[in-house]
Amino acid sequence: MTADAPEIIIGSRKVGSAHPPLFWPDIDLYFHRDEKLARRLIDTIAAAGGGYLKGAALHRADLCLDESGLMPYFDHLNGKMVAYPYRQMIEDMVVPLGMLERLLSHGRDAGLEIVLSVYDEEGVCFAEQSHVVALKIPSSNITHKWLIERAASTGLPLVIDTGRSRWFEIDRAIGWAEKAGGLGRLLIQHSPPGPPATAERFHMRMLAELSRSFACPVGLSDHHAGLDMLPLALALGACVFEKGVVAERCEAGIDRAHAIPADRLAEAIKMMHSNWMALGHSRRPDGDAPMSSPDRMGCVAARTLTVGEFLTRKDIEFAFPVVGAPADEADRLVGRKVKSALVRGQPITPADLS
């Protein structure tokens, strides 16, 4: 995050480089319409103390054509790439808005603030009525001008995911959102590819470049397996982290390989907060530095000095710790007259000199 990047407010929290980062546990559609499982995940999220719940309003299978081909993904259970009919995958994952409203209500009752991905006009209207604190445009819709404009026009903070996007597509989407009323309410997410992508495809330096180029807070939509990318993203300026959360034991499926088990959520939140605290300031405050320390050197006599002599550079040596004059005052001692005899190795104090 650049120093001059503006802050935005998402729900009850300020988002920006001067504030602790937010963690958004994402249940997305991973629960496959198992409402009891989704409620258990929400309860675990609330207990972990992150304060937010991320979901998705994908409620119509006909948003995907019947003849849509195969979708490849990494099967983390078998450790290999597999392909699945795209339409069938959507049918397996869609959640009716009635069920979604019950789940969001459960989350609100647990004290969670809701962020929702939207895929169509009806999803945007549903999100508005559900009192979400932010909308998200998934990376798959970064070219969907009308959806971006509609979401930006709500007055809600808007998250734009940039995964698999070319730079001009990102620039264009930000422009659409700003012209539609989103100026000052945008968060840009960097979204590296999911496993088993190699490290050189992550391009994590994009976080700082996105913030600099668009003067917006930036976040990470983390598709890496495990938690390794969170500290790196934090150091590069990310102030919001979205990470998939699934049940401890779950079946294979798209996006499952990069999600973390719900029982690791508290660990992730604690790690992120600890790392943010460790970043501190760009300059250590003077008050944090000790005024004196055993590992600082002080001035001592390099030989026996008699009364009336004038001190030269050769008459001064240095030793731990600071007892008399500190090392940074040695120049001020040179040329002064000795008024109290000193033996070799004895600390030199201002009182020993005239």
TrEMBL record:
CDD domains given for it?
SAF_CpaB_FlgA_like
Pfam families this protein is in? NeuB, SAF
What InterPro entries is this protein classified in? AFP_Neu5c_C_sf, Aldolase_TIM, PseI-like, PseI/NeuA/B-like_N, SAF, SAF_AFP_Neu5Ac
Coiled-coil parts of chain: none
Q: Which residues form the AFP-like domain?
A: 298-354
What the entry lists under SUPFAM superfamilies is as follows: AFP III-like domain (SSF51269), Aldolase (SSF51569)
For this entry, the protein name equals N-acetylneuraminate synthase family protein
- Which organism is this entry from? Mesorhizobium liriopis
